Amino acid sequence: MKIGNVKINGHLFLAPMADVTNPAFRMLCKKHGAALTYSEMISADAVLHGNIRTANRGLSSEEEKPFAIQLFGNSAATIVNASSIIEERFCPDIIDLNFGCPAKVLVKDGSGSALLDFPEKIREIVSAVSGKVDAPVTAKIRVLHDMEKTLDIARVIEEAGAGAITVHGRTQAQQYAGKAEHEYARKIKNELSIPVIANGDISNGHSAKHVLEYTGCDALMVGRASMGNPHIFTEISHFLRTGEQLPTDECTQRLADFKEYVRLLELYGLEEYVDIRMHARWFTRGIKGGRHVRQGISGTREKKSIIRLMESLCAQLPSKATNNDFHGK
Ligand SMILES: Cc1cc2nc3c(=O)[nH]c(=O)nc-3n(C[C@H](O)[C@H](O)[C@H](O)COP(=O)(O)O)c2cc1C
C-alpha cells in the first residue's frame, strides 16, 4: 500500500504509544514485521523549546524506514513550526497528527481528543501542516458517540489533505474501557478514498483477520498487544497468510526479544530514558510463573539480573511451551 508517495510493504502497523514506542522498541517491532512504526507522541511545544527527551523520541535509523513521527498540540502555528523542525531533523517518512489522546493533561490544554469537538480547527491544522512539509501527513482519531459527526471529521481530514487516517474505535470518555467499535472504521473506509487504518483490540491473528475483513480497511494498527511482545507481528502475519497459529516457544521468544531490546537501547543510548523494569515486566506478561518473576524484577535495576530472572522462568517451563500453554497472569 501507499500513503502519499510512501510505499509500505505490509499492512500491520505499530501504534504510537507514549513511554513504549521508543526507537529501540520500534526497531524490534520492525524486525518482527511491523510495516510502519510510529514514534511516541511528541509535543509540538516541546519541539519548539528544544526539549532533549522529546528529541530522543524522534530518533530513528535507516533500517526502521518507513517510520512516522506523531505530534500533538493545540495550535496550527505551533504544530506547523514543529513539523518543519521534525522533518528537517529526523526525516520521518510520515508526520502523524494526534487527535485522539484522551489524557486529561492534553485535553485540558485543547490538544489530542479535545480537538474532535472542533472539526474546523482540525481542518486548519491538517491543511497547514500538509502545505508545509514534504512528508505525507496523517491523522489518528478516536470516535464520537455520534457516527455522523465522526464521519464529518474523517471527511474534513481527507479534504484538508491528509494521506491516511487511523481510527481507534473508542470515544474519549471510554479511555481504554469497553470494546473498540470497528463499525466506525468500516463506514469511514466506505466513504473516503485515502487509506484507512483500523485500530483497537487487535491482539492476535483471529482479531486481526476479523477486523480486516469486517472493516475492509487498508491496514491494522496494533498497540497494547505488542507491549513486551513484539513477536506479535510475526504471529499475526503468519495467521493472515496461512490461517494457522504459529507454534512459538513463548518464553524463549520473549527472552530473546528482551535481550535484543536491551542491546538496541544501548546502541541508541536510550537506557537512561527508559524504565527498564516496567518494560521487562511487560515481557513476562501472560507467561506461567511470570508474576513471581515480575516481583523479582521490581527489586532490581540491573539488566543482567533481570535477564537471569527471565532465564530462570524459561528454564522451569516445559521446553517448547507454546502460546497455548500460557495463562492470563
Ligand atoms: C501506554 C500507551 C500509550 C499510548 N500513547 C499514545 C500516543 O502517544 N499517541 C497516540 O495516538 N495513541 C497513544 N496510545 C493509544 C494507542 O496508539 C492505541 O490507539 C490504543 O492503545 C488502542 O489500540 P490497542 O487496543 O491495540 O492497544 C497509547 C496507548 C497506550 C496503552
TrEMBL record:
<dbReference type="InterPro" id="IPR035587">
    <property type="entry name" value="DUS-like_FMN-bd"/>
</dbReference>
<feature type="domain" description="DUS-like FMN-binding">
    <location>
        <begin position="14"/>
        <end position="304"/>
    </location>
</feature>
<dbReference type="GO" id="GO:0017150">
    <property type="term" value="F:tRNA dihydrouridine synthase activity"/>
</dbReference>
<dbReference type="InterPro" id="IPR013785">
    <property type="entry name" value="Aldolase_TIM"/>
</dbReference>
<dbReference type="InterPro" id="IPR001269">
    <property type="entry name" value="DUS_fam"/>
</dbReference>
<dbReference type="GO" id="GO:0050660">
    <property type="term" value="F:flavin adenine dinucleotide binding"/>
</dbReference>
<keyword id="KW-0288">FMN</keyword>
<keyword id="KW-0285">Flavoprotein</keyword>
<protein>
    <submittedName>
        <fullName>Putative TIM-barrel protein, nifR3 family</fullName>
    </submittedName>
</protein>
<keyword id="KW-0819">tRNA processing</keyword>
<keyword id="KW-0560">Oxidoreductase</keyword>
<dbReference type="InterPro" id="IPR004652">
    <property type="entry name" value="DusB-like"/>
</dbReference>
<dbReference type="Pfam" id="PF01207">
    <property type="entry name" value="Dus"/>
</dbReference>
<dbReference type="InterPro" id="IPR018517">
    <property type="entry name" value="tRNA_hU_synthase_CS"/>
</dbReference>
